[in-house]
Design a protein that fits this description.
By secondary structure, this protein is an alpha/beta fold. It is built from nine helices and twelve strands. The two termini are 82 Å apart.
Length: 392
C-alpha cells in the first residue's frame, strides 16, 4: 500500500507510540499524535491528513465520536475507530458517524493495515460515487433547463403562430369591411355623376360634391391598402432601412399638403420648422409613414376650428418632431395599448379608422432605431414626441 499521512488520536500514550511505530514500519507518515479531540482538530487545521486513527474515549470535552462528526463536517477524510468497547450502545453511536472502519483492541499490525487499506478504498469509492452523482445531477439540471428553454421556445413559436393566425383573420375582416364602404360610395357617386353630367349647369355643385366624396373614399381605400401591405412586409421581416439623401423641407411640406388634402375637418396645421438641415440621409419612406400617420390622426381626432402644431428641429444628429392636437385625447386606462395593431380607443365614436396607423408608426421608428413617446389627457388632446437619428 502507498504511504499515507496519518493522524493518531489516542489518550493512552503507550498505545499511541506503539501504533505510531507499527504504522511507520509500513512507510506511513504520522503528522501528529493527540490525546484529545480538541488537539486533533488543531492539528488538522494546520496539516493535511489522509486518514485519522480515532480512539473513542479521549481526554478533554470532546470524545472520539463527537470529534469524528466535526471532522466529517469540516474535512471529509476517513476515520478508523480504535476501541476496546464493542457493546451495542457504543456501536450504535459509531455507526451514526459513518466511520470508514472499526477496530477492536488489541489488534495485530496485519489486521490494522488491512483495515486502513479498506478504509482508504471505501473513502475513495464513496467520493468517486459522489462525484458521479454530482455530475449526473448537474447533467439532469442542465437537461431540465434545456428542456424548459426548448419548451419556452416552442410555446413562443406556437403563440406567434396563433397570433399570426388571428392577425390574418382580423386583417381579412377589417380589409373586407374597409373595402366595402368606400367601394359602395364610389359606385353610387359615380352613378350620380353620370346622371348629373347629362343635366345643365345648375347641377355642377352636386357634381363637385360627389366628386369630392369619390376622392375621399379612394384616399381611405388607398390608405387602408397601404397599411395592409406594410404589415404584410413587416410580418415577413422585409422592412429594411434604405437610407438615401433627401430634401427634408420638401418631404415635410409634402406630408402636410397630403394631410390637408385628405382632411374632412376644418383644422389648421401650424408647421414650425426650427434649425433643421436642408438635406439629411435617412429612409424617406419610413419618415413619410411616421409623420403622415401622426399628423393625419391629429387632424382626424380634432374638432372643427381647432389647430394642430407640427414642430421639427435637429439637435446632435437627431431629428426631433413634436405633433400636438387639442382633440379627444386617449383614455388613461387604454394608453398602454396605443401602439397595438387594430387598437382603437373607446372614445373614437363614429370616427373612421383601421387601428393600424400608430402601430405602423412604432414599427417605422423601431426600424430607424429611434424613439417615440406621448402624453395625452381625455378631451384635452395628445402630443407625440419622435426622436430619430439622421446623417446630414
Amino acid at each position: 500500500m502507498f504511504p499515507l499521512r496519518i493522524l493518531i488520536t489516542e489518550d493512552d500514550h503507550v498505545s499511541a507510540l506503539l501504533l505510531k511505530k507499527a504504522l511507520e514500519k509500513n512507510n506511513h507518515q504520522i503528522i501528529g499524535i493527540s490525546d484529545s479531540g480538541e488537539k486533533a482538530l488543531e492539528i488538522l487545521a494546520e496539516h493535511h491528513a489522509d486518514i485519522v486513527m480515532m480512539d473513542i474515549n479521549l481526554a478533554g470535552e470532546l470524545d472520539g465520536i463527537r470529534t469524528t462528526e466535526i471532522i466529517n463536517e469540516k474535512y471529509d477524510i476517513p476515520v478508523v475507530y480504535l476501541s476496546a468497547s464493542s457493546d451495542a450502545e457504543t456501536l450504535t453511536k459509531v455507526v451514526g458517524t459513518n466511520p470508514s472502519a472499526y477496530v477492536i483492541k488489541p489488534f495485530n499490525i496485519r489486521e490494522l493495515n488491512m483495515v486502513i487499506e479498506l478504509a482508504i478504498f471505501k473513502d475513495r469509492k464513496e467520493k468517486e460515487l459522489q462525484k458521479l452523482n454530482n455530475e449526473l445531477e448537474e447533467k439532469v439540471r442542465q437537461r431540465t433547463k434545456d428542456l424548459a428553454e426548448a419548451n419556452k421556445e416552442l410555446t413562443r413559436a406556437l403563440e406567434k403562430e396563433r397570433e399570426i393566425g388571428e392577425l390574418k383573420s382580423r386583417i381579412v375582416l377589417n380589409v373586407s369591411h374597409g373595402f366595402k364602404t368606400p367601394l359602395t360610395s364610389i359606385l353610387s357617386s359615380a352613378q350620380l355623376l353620370q346622371k348629373y353630367a347629362e343635366k345643365d349647369h345648375p347641377f355642377k355643385a352636386k357634381i363637385m360634391k360627389h366628386a369630392e366624396k369619390i376622392e375621399h373614399s379612394v384616399r381611405n381605400l388607398n390608405s387602408l391598402l397601404t397599411s395592409v401591405l406594410f404589415f404584410g412586409k413587416a410580418d415577413a421581416n422585409k422592412i429594411d432601412y434604405k437610407p438615401k439623401k433627401l430634401f427634408l423641407n420638401a418631404l415635410i411640406n409634402e406630408v402636410v399638403d397630403v394631410v390637408k388634402a385628405g382632411s374632412e375637418n376644418d383644422v389648421k396645421i401650424n408647421l414650425k420648422l426650427g434649425n433643421i438641415p436642408k438635406t439629411i440621409t435617412s429612409d424617406s419612406d419610413l419618415l413619410y409613414q411616421i409623420f403622415e400617420n401622426l399628423l393625419s390622426n391629429a387632424v382626424k381626432y380634432s374638432k372643427d376650428g381647432q389647430s394642430v402644431e407640427f414642430e421639427l428641429t435637429e439637435e446632435n444628429g437627431y431629428l426631433h418632431a413634436k405633433i400636438s392636437d387639442h382633440g379627444i385625447g386617449i383614455p388613461i386606462e387604454e394608453q398602454d395599448q396605443l401602439f397595438d395593431r387594430f387598437f382603437r380607443a373607446k372614445n373614437v365614436g363614429i370616427i373612421e379608422g383601421s387601428g393600424l396607423g400608430l402601430s405602423i408608426v412604432k414599427k417605422c421608428v423601431d426600424v430607424l432605431e429611434g424613439e417615440i413617446t406621448f402624453k395625452s389627457k381625455p378631451n384635452e388632446g395628445t402630443t407625440f414626441f419622435v426622436k430619430i437619428p439622421i446623417t446630414k
